[in-house]
Amino acid sequence: MLLVFEDSHKEHLSFLVGLEPEVLREFCKISMNFIRKGTNPKVFQGAAQKLGVSAESVQHGVEGLMYLLTESSKMMLNEIDFQDSIMTLGFDDDTRTTLLEVYLSQRKDIRDILNEVSMDLPHYHNLEWRFDVQLSSRSLRHQVSPSILLQLQTQEDGEKKTQMLQTDPVNLIHLTSVLEEALQEMKSGYCRRIVRNIK
Amino acid sequence: MELGSSILENISVAGDAAHISDKAFISLVQAACQGVLLEEHRNAVAENPAFKDTDKAILKEAYSGLVTLILEAAKHDSSEQNISSVLEDCKFTTDRISSFAKEFLPQKPHVQLLLGKISSSFPHIVDVDWRLDYYIKNNHLEKVNSAVYLISLKTEVPGSNDIQEVQFSCSLEQLQDLVGKLKDATKCMEKLTQG
C-alpha cells in the first residue's frame, strides 16, 4: 500500500527538501511533540527567524510532516512502502533515510496515541475476589451459604469504575468454564484461519 | 425461639376448641402455611368456607398467632420438640400439637428458603454470555487486528424480577487475566470444601 499525497500536501512537504539533516531531525522532534501534546504556534516563529523564512512555510512544513507520520502510522506502512511513498517528493537519500528512521522509531508511539483517541468500550481492568460464608441474617438464623464476592474494575476513556458483584459456587464454576471456552475459541482452526487471512 | 405475650395469647386462641373446631384448626394451619409460602394465598382466610362458622375477630387472632409461630419456628430452625413445648404452654391438646407438626414440618424447609432470600446482596451473577470479535480498523487506525471479547454478565438483583447485565470488553490478555483469577477462586473454594 502506498500513501497518496494531495498537491497541497506535496507543496508543504517540499519545504523540507534540502534541509540539513540536523534541522530535519529538529523538525521531526517538533512534529512528534505536536502530535503528542497539540500544536504551539510560538515555535514556528522562532524556527522561522533562525532559518530566515516565513513562519507560515515553517508551519506548513511541520504540519506536512505530522500528516505524513500519522498517515503512515495509521496505515501501518512497512519500510518499503514508506520509502516508495516518499520517493516522488524529491528528497535526497539522506533525507529519506532520516524520515524512515524517525517513522520506524515513532510508529508505535503514534499508533498508541491514535488508539487513545479511537472509540473506546468499557473494558476489563482488574478483578478482586473473596470467599464468604453467610451464617445468619435478620430473617433466617443458622445458614451456611457460601458466596464469592467479586470486585470488578472496568475502564472507559481513562476512567475506572468499580462494581461489586457476587455469585455462588455453582455459578462460579459455570462462569469460569464458559469464559475458558471463550478463551480456547481464539485458538480454534476457524479463528486462526481468519486471523491469518486478515493482514 | 422467644415469643411475646400477645403472640402466645393469639396462639392459645388457635388451640382453644371452644373458639376453633378441630376441623377448622387443621384448615387454619394449612391456610397459614400457604399464606406464608404463596403470595396469592395471603390474607385469603376471610373468604375460606372452612371458617364460615368461626367468629371473624377470633379467626384473625388465631391466624396471626399461627403465622408468627410458623415464621419464627422456621427462622430459628426449631425442632419438633421445641415447637411442642411452646404449644403445650399455650394449652394445646396432644392431637392439635401433632396435627400442627404434621402440617408445618414438611413446609419448614420451603419457608426457610423464602426467608433466606430476604437479604440485601450485591447483584448475583447467574450466567454469562460472550462474543468474540476481531477488531480490524477504526477511523483513526488501520490494521488494529486484535481479538476483542465482549462479555455480558447476567445478574439477579434482590427485589427485582429482571435479569440485569454487566457488560464490558476484554482483549485476549485481559480475558486470560480474568479467567486466571476466576480459576484461582474456584480452586480456593474447592480446597475449602474438601478440607
UniProtKB/TrEMBL annotation, chain A:
Highest taxon in the source lineage: Eukaryota
Domain named COMM: residues: 123-190
Pfam family, one: COMM_HN
PROSITE patterns: COMM (PS51269)
InterPro entries: COMM, Commd2
Name of the featured protein: COMM domain-containing protein 2
UniProt lineage: Eukaryota, Metazoa, Spiralia, Lophotrochozoa, Mollusca
From TrEMBL, chain B:
Pfam family, one: COMM_domain
InterPro entries: COMM (IPR017920), COMMD3 (IPR037355)
Domain COMM stretches: 124-193
CDD domains referenced in this protein's UniProt entry, alphabetically: Commd3 (cd04751)
Domain of life where this protein originates: Eukaryota
Family under the similarity heading: Belongs to the COMM domain-containing protein 3 family.
Protein name: COMM domain-containing protein 3
